[in-house]
Amino acid sequence: MMKLRNTVFEDIEIGQCAALVRHVEMSDITGFAALTGDCNPIHLNQDYAEHTPFHGIVAHGMWSAAQISAVIGTKLPGPGSVYLSQDLKFVAPVKVGDVITTKVTVVDKDYSHGFLTIDCQCTNQRNEEVVFGIATILAPTEKLFIDVESPEVRLVDNLC
């Protein structure tokens, strides 16, 4: 059971940040492929992936983007946040075994609409940037404290 709480717009300060660290496993990549239907062999077939510029399997770029969503939806601002837009640049591959730190930082507040502009960055264990961008979020206005069951995912169909 996870206990989630948010930070409401009025309590958020420019410069405030939050982060999440994930160790990338092959099960993350295969699970993401199964959930999205993106079965590009660069993500799933070692023999194929060895002959690409990355010389091996890489995680989906949107897996990294999903980590940004996880920080925004669970940490800052947290539950009740509404994603409005995201501009991302994918600048380096994410591979099995990498440790990805995803950090979001509030860089602006639109007081007339309740929007936050959030700088987003994913770095690997060598502190190399792999993804960066800017998100616009509608921040929650009501404080929430919520218990959430951690979902369990089991793949039963081999869709790829």
From TrEMBL:
GO terms for cellular component: fatty acid synthase complex. InterPro entries: Fatty_acid_synthase, HotDog_dom_sf, MaoC-like_dom, UPF0336/Enoyl-CoA_hydratase. It comes from Pseudoalteromonas luteoviolacea S4054. One of its GO terms (molecular function) is (3R)-hydroxyacyl-[acyl-carrier-protein] dehydratase activity. The keyword Lyase applies. It comes from the Bacteria. Signal peptide: none annotated. The keyword Lyase applies. It holds the Pfam family MaoC_dehydratas. The lineage of its organism: Bacteria, Pseudomonadati, Pseudomonadota, Gammaproteobacteria, Alteromonadales. CDD domains: R_hydratase. This is MaoC-like domain-containing protein. Keywords: Lyase. One of its GO terms (biological process) is fatty acid biosynthetic process. Residues 22-110 form the MaoC-like domain.
